[in-house]
Design brief:
Layout lengths: L12 H16 L4 H7 L5 E2 L15 E4 L4 E4 L8 H5 L9 E3 L2 E5 H9 L4 H8 L3 H14 L5 E4 L2 E4 L9 H4 L4 H15 L11
Antiparallel strand pairs: 1-5, 2-3, 4-5, 6-7
Helix pairs in contact: 1-5, 1-6, 1-8, 5-6
């Protein structure tokens, strides 16, 4: 039912998904920061040992609240509406000192990690041309309409009419759990998960 079929060498789907994520996050800079800051662990502070920096009393992961200029537990602010979520201002990049520990937001590390997955490297592995990977990534990011909303039953909700999914073809091989993570990451970067128009879990 697709308008375009892009054949890949079996088992290389994950590399293409990571290359698309790289294009979307690093080349285009199309990110649903509201979703990432409030619905994922993207702003969680990570120490050099790759572990969360945690609140001493509660053990909850910490985020850097740019408004307060300090580290706070991830659930420090109440989020009951999309409007409230839009007002959250947790850092997604930068380096911060918390209790004598240098820490960075997790998403900064994810974004940096994605840089190695260029469309050119993905093309060499998958035989899908780099230009095609870039084009599809751009089309996917544009289709997600990051920032748009829809009102349903009086509630204003994010509207992300894009969805990346895979089934038996992409899942039926060794190490395919990594492929599943890579495809899910495309939805998360654009906020197209468990919202109208996006991938529903």
């Amino acid at each position: 039912k697709a308008t375009e079929w892009v054949p890949v060498i079996p088992g290389t789907d994950g590399f293409i998904a990571l290359a698309m994520g790289n294009v979307i996050a690093n080349e285009l800079g199309t990110l649903d920061t509201v979703f990432l800051k409030t619905k994922t662990n993207a702003p969680y502070l990570i120490a050099s040992d790759k572990k969360y920096v945690r609140h001493k009393e509660t053990g909850k992961p910490l985020v850097w609240d740019l408004r307060e200029g300090k580290a706070v537990p991830y659930d420090h602010r109440s989020i009951t509406t999309y409007k409230a979520a839009c007002e959250i201002d947790y850092a997604m990049e930068g380096e911060y000192e918390v209790n004598g520990i240098a820490a960075v937001p997790l998403f900064q590390q994810v974004r940096e990690h994605l840089k190695q997955y260029t469309p050119e490297r993905a093309a060499a592995v998958s035989k899908v041309p780099a230009d095609t990977i870039r084009r599809i990534a751009g089309e996917f990011a544009e289709a997600a309409k990051v920032g748009s909303t829809i009102t349903i039953d009086g509630a204003n909700l994010p509207f992300r009419p894009a969805s990346a999914v895979l089934f038996r073809g992409g899942e039926g091989h060794q190490n395919s759990s990594h492929t599943c993570f890579a495809v899910a990451l495309l939805n998360l970067i654009l906020g197209a998960a468990d919202v109208p128009g996006g991938t529903l879990g």
